[in-house]
Write a structure and sequence with these properties.
Blueprint lengths: L4 E5 L2 E5 L13 H19 L6 E3 L9 E3 L4
Antiparallel strand pairs: 1-2, 3-4
Length: about 70
Amino acid sequence: MTKPVEFAVGGRTLRLTNLDKQLYPSGFTKSEVIDYYARIAPVLLPHLAGRCITFRRFPDGSTKDGFFEKRCP
């Protein structure tokens, strides 16, 4: 298991954990997904501003049951 990492973004410091955790059956890790979204954020975020979002979480991996986050950050 990887050690937690602190990452500064948008004036906030995030504590990222379990970066080696596999999130998708194809093998993508949490670290790879975070990297992808960080790279596309400048293009993606303007299109999401002011829109409702649905956040479905799978804390035990994509092959286990998930739930809908009711209070998205």
